[in-house]
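Step 1: inspect the first sequence and its tokens.
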Amino acid sequence: MNKINIIKLILLLTLLFGAMSAAWAEDRFYIDAVNIEPGETKTLAFNLDNSQDFYGFQADISLPEGVEIVMTGNKADITLSPRMDASYTVVSNLLSSGAVRLGTFSTSHTPINGNSGALIYLKVSADDSFAGGTISLTDILFIDASDRDVQLPDFSIDLGAVHNNSFYIPDFKISVGETKTVSIILDNETPFTAFQTDIYLPEGLTIETNSFVLSSRAAGTHSVSAKSFSDGRTRIACLSTGNDVFTGNSGELLNFNITADKDVAETCQIELRNKIFSMANAKEYLVPNSTTNVTTVELQDATSGDLNEDGSINTIDLNMMIDHIVSGTLNFKFANGDMNSDSTINSIDLNILIDKIINGN
């Protein structure tokens, strides 16, 4: 055999053994992802993906705090899948570490059927204090055709209640000088009884004092409070003296008023951060932060002089402007009264408005 053929043979053998190693590397024993609520019982599926024949296994299972294996008599509630025939027996044993060792073997040395899918089913239950955690499989040993142990990789997965919950303010538009009612929306799969969150406003937007009002989704036992901090954020807290759940799974939870002044940017953002919700059992959930896009309406988009926006400019608008100049009360869109667009409303704007009423200019 010449040198070239020897090199080709070596390359061929390298590729062959590499392919075999890759196939063996595919063997794995793992658990399907599953959600489990406090107080709920679920069946976990333990799957085997295998590229070679196996005749039994053992593995150590570690469960998170608050989850335990359901027992039937003094035995774990385990069901074998059709991948194992009637010759297979299952055993379980509690280890000093707190882990449970599961094992199966065939009395007739029959291989496990197929190359993928569930191998066994284990029933577990979560107590009322369960708050999520990790379930782990370690020391996973399968028996091959030569009765040798084949160790498969350890496996772990988060076990818990995974819900889609969002708490946010929809995007909106506002004019300079306008006071607008905005809503905070709660879309929730989890039943909540209380919450707190921090609102961060950009320069030029302010929250009207005592303007927070709960929607009909709140019970009569719910109350809401707000506190402003030196860093500019406003913290809202809502509690229920009766530990009552917010009704429904979507829609407005509360409303409040925001005013835009002359310093507001053309486009800006409001942020809701540190969203902590509580369930009736006092378990807390963190809901992701959210951002609201705010667009300021251009001054020229407003109807200059029509302070009460009734479609006409008359003495009613004049009296509203006089009242604002004298007392500082603003009960109209600032942009409608800022006749010369200098970001202030004063006697100059008053004269322009009078001229507009008399002459129609």
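Step 2: inspect the second sequence and its tokens, then contrast the two.
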Amino acid sequence: MEKKRYWGIRAKIILCTVLCVVAVGLGSSLYLYQYMQRIISEKMAQIDQLNAGTITARLDDALERARTLQIYCGNSGRAAEALSHTPGRPGAAGAALSAQNALNTYLRTSPIDGYIHRLVVFNEAGVCVSAVTVYDGALQDLSNLLDSPQFRAWKEEGEAPFSRLYPSLNPRGADCFALFAPVYSHTSSRRVGYVYIELSPAIITDVLAPYNGLNLFFIQTAARDRLTTPGAVPLAAALGPEAAQGGEFTYDGTLYALQRYPTATQGLTLCSCVNQTQLQAADHEILFSVVTVILMIVLIAVFVLVLLTHYITTPIRRITEKINRIALNDYSYDPELERPRSEMGEIGARLNELGLGFQQLLSEAIALHDERAKIEMDLLQSQVNPHFLYNTLNSIHWMAVVQKNTGIEKMVKSLVSLLKNISKGRGCRTRSPWRRSWSCWTTM
């Protein structure tokens, strides 16, 4: 009979374990990977937005202080009085000195005095009063201010003060923001002059410096001037002028994504360069962690498989071998079947009892068969009447004598003698009258 082929329990356990590891491990790991990736991206976006919100708040506060200083100077009565005098007339010099003292006071009490390169009140009639700033001395020529592009742009277009950078009017000065405001007479609504504040871009870059860690921030004006810390200047310069919100670009082998945040100050936009390469490196670390988790799951699955093999498949294999031995009439006792302290041990104990029961039943069946054969033989012997048999043989003997057939006569006579010996329990198997029995056999 051909043996049936089937999947063993060990193979099924291995298959189920592998499927469970693949389904649960990979599924949960991929979900964990995507979840962690999303969480990191969201947290990075939240941190970037939080930093951007802090930067814009600090920028707006610093620039608002500059406008406040400009308003104080524009509303100063002493500045308006100095601008109302004609140069060279009596009282003009005293009024100018008083206005300068007022400007110095306003400047020194301002938290942003270190960023003010020039603070000037002037008019087109030739009056010019300058506060003492980080640059010593006064303007070399008032005509430089009157002819400056920033003054012309403000008078003609009313351009926002922070929409672009202008060349500084100070010798060897860097580009700056130019703030203009009119000064009106306190006795009438007549404009008597202007306030000019030359503001250093450092007021913006110093705010950005603490936040240029993972992501790089810079400020872009309406004229596309970009202000940032010295380390981020090449990156800001590498960005195209028409870079879109969320657009990606590469600088020095690093991938960045551009994010824009509007500020409350007209003409300024805060831009953030999100380091996508570093985020991808974090993704790789997460992926490595996920792979490590999968390997740990596989190791745990192998450990569980070993336990299952020890507690399930090995006892089942022994039970199968015991059943095969029973099929081959081997009913011997196997103590290993009862070693597991579980249901498998109970099954093994029942199999041992079954084998011993089969062996006892077989011994009893053999004994009953022998006893039955003996009883049948005794019954058969009891059913044969010796006297009837002797009379029949004697009749045959005398017929042979009458017919003078000596061969039949001798044979029948020997058979009668042999039967008498057998009926007495001797016959050819006894040793007492063995000679007489032997003569009977030889005669027959």
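Step 3: confirm your contrast with the notes below.
The beta strands are 116-122, 128-130, 177-184, 191-199, 216-221, 226-227, 248-251, 254-262, 268-275. Residues 426-434 have pLDDT under 50 and may be disordered.
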